[in-house]
Write a structure and sequence with these properties.
By secondary structure, the chain is α/β, with parallel strands linked by helices. Helix content is 43%, strand content 20%. The protein has a single domain, classed as Rhodanese-like domain (Oxidized Rhodanese, domain 1, 3-Layer(aba) Sandwich). It contains five helices and five strands. Strands 1-5-4-2-3 form a five-stranded parallel sheet. The chain is globular and about 30 Å long.
Length: 94
């Protein structure tokens, strides 16, 4: 699985050159999120992942990096180009 450190991810995000997929739940997203990201909670990912563009590369984020790693594993098996953001939003808050 491809991974990126939070600092490397943040630089790419701030440059506006990436598509971000947030797999946290709605309440977590509402409390703190990055602007312009796509919310697709892990709890519904298996039912709704087909809405994602297979031609697009996604950087996947959650709270700590565990759920995003699971999401990346699933999406990669389905043929998507995904990169896990290590440390997740916890790294953003620290």
């Amino acid at each position: 699985m491809k991974e990126i450190s939070f600092n490397e991810f943040l630089a790419k995000y701030q440059a506006g050159e990436i598509q971000v997929l947030d797999v946290r739940e709605q309440e977590e997203y509402d409390a703190l999120h990055l602007d312009g990201v796509t919310l697709l909670p892990l709890s519904v990912l298996a039912e709704q992942y087909a809405e994602l563009d297979k031609e697009q590369a996604y950087y996947v984020i959650c709270k700590s990096g565990r759920r995003s790693a699971r999401a990346c594993q699933f999406l990669a098996e389905e043929g998507y180009d995904v990169t896990n953001v290590q440390g997740g939003m916890d790294a953003f808050e620290s």
